[in-house]
Inverse folding.
């Protein structure tokens, strides 16, 4: 009886599920559309995922699915910020609407997608992401060695100056299929969290849910190669965070310890094999130079990546009393929104880090409420994922949470790519917390 109802529900949700799949594919290949396929449409394609989130928002309202307290609070805060922006800040309707879409549509999309998807869907999406990571690694290696003038390195709108970002020793940080390297790093962060789960639990899954063992080894080698070839310190520390989450899981559940030891030995063996075959090429030297140079410029490791990049300048942003009490207005901290008022994301405040943008747009009081809501949401999925380890010996939510927690708590919501990975990581993690 129950199985019959589930089957009918899945059949009824098929078009909604396809919409979530389309969101995922557009997130991964949006940059490719804007760089290589439709360069003349680069600007409108920035909003290519908006019709999906607006449609499913309407579906969620119709079915009264958006009951999550955190999403509802963020929607309310977004509407308040929208009104104050029009009445007391920049007074620009289009800029305010561009900022409102984040809180009203994208955060509610998380809840609607979770209502639609089940655990089986999560595993299918996770497998798809892992399979895509193989050609993505090949692509970034090609981008690493090819000059910025090459077609594979073209920037947004077919920009011949290239999409690569400053690296070291004359090499640039490759973006993969994304508009900028930021998107590729986020993609690999999600790949790492999924890869750890499958490496530990692949043999325990049903046959149709598994990944071929040798293919899984290829995926691991590709990920190992991606760290130095990305020339990204953020990706390295994202990997460390995922491994730290895994270590906590091992401490909580002794049954995973043997698998953990075997996994570490296998990874070390694969690392040795990749080194022996010369697969790293010049990437390690370039990565180490980038690491050393950037740390010297930024004043060391703690102040650089940990202090500014991963924590997003939390303290400085939360106590910036130079910001107007109601902020500079919703949407003005985004590149697109700022351009509508002939400015950029640095004109009024530093909108590059997650909290800086929120406080700058909404002011200290409302900004603190939004930040607090996001932190509370992150803690909520963290606690629920821990419960799943103890109650069901289920590592899937916990592994996914290693990426989703950092993203929902401190991810940059102002850029469509970063926002997309916040949304997708939360969708996968919260859907994995469903037992059916």
């Amino acid at each position: 009886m129950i199985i019959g109802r589930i089957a009918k529900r899945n059949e009824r949700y098929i078009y909604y599920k396809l919409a979530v799949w389309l969101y995922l594919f557009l997130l991964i290949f949006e940059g490719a559309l804007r760089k290589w396929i439709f360069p003349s449409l680069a600007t409108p394609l920035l909003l290519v995922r908006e019709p999906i989130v607006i449609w499913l928002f309407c579906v969620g309202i119709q079915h009264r699915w958006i009951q999550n307290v955190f999403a509802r609070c963020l929607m309310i805060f977004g509407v308040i910020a929208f009104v104050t922006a029009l009445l007391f800040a920049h007074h620009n309707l289009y800029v305010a609407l561009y900022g409102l879409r984040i809180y009203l549509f994208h955060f509610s999309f998380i809840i609607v997608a979770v209502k639609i998807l089940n655990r089986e869907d999560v595993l299918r999406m996770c497998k798809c992401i892992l399979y895509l990571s193989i050609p993505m690694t090949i692509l970034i290696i090609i981008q690493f060695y090819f000059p910025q003038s090459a077609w594979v390195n073209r920037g947004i709108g077919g920009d011949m100056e290239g999409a690569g970002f400053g690296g070291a020793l004359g090499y640039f940080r490759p973006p993969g299929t994304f508009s900028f390297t930021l998107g590729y790093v986020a993609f690999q962060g999600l790949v790492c969290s999924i890869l750890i789960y499958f490496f530990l639990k692949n043999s325990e899954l049903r046959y149709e849910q598994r990944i071929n063992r040798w293919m899984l080894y290829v995926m691991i080698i590709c990920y190992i190669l991606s760290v130095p070839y990305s020339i990204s310190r953020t990706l390295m520390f994202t990997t460390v965070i995922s491994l730290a989450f895994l270590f906590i899981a091992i401490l909580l559940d002794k049954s995973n310890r043997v698998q953990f030891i075997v996994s570490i030995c296998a990874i070390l063996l694969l690392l040795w094999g990749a080194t022996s075959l010369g697969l790293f090429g010049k990437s390690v030297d370039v990565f180490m130079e980038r690491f050393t140079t950037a740390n010297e410029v930024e004043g060391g490791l703690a102040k650089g990546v940990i202090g500014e990049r991963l924590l997003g300048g939390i303290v400085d942003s939360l106590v910036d009393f130079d910001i107007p009490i109601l902020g500079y207005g919703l949407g003005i901290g985004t590149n697109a929104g700022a351009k509508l008022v002939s400015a950029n994301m640095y004109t009024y405040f530093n909108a590059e880090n997650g909290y800086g943008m929120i406080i700058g747009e909404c002011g200290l009081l409302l900004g603190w409420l939004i930040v607090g809501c996001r932190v509370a949401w992150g803690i909520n999925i963290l606690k629920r994922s821990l419960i799943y380890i103890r109650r069901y010996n289920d590592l899937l939510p916990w592994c996914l949470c290693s990426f989703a927690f950092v993203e929902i708590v401190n991810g940059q919501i102002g850029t469509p790519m970063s926002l997309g990975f916040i949304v997708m990581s939360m969708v996968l993690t919260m859907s994995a917390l469903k037992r059916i």
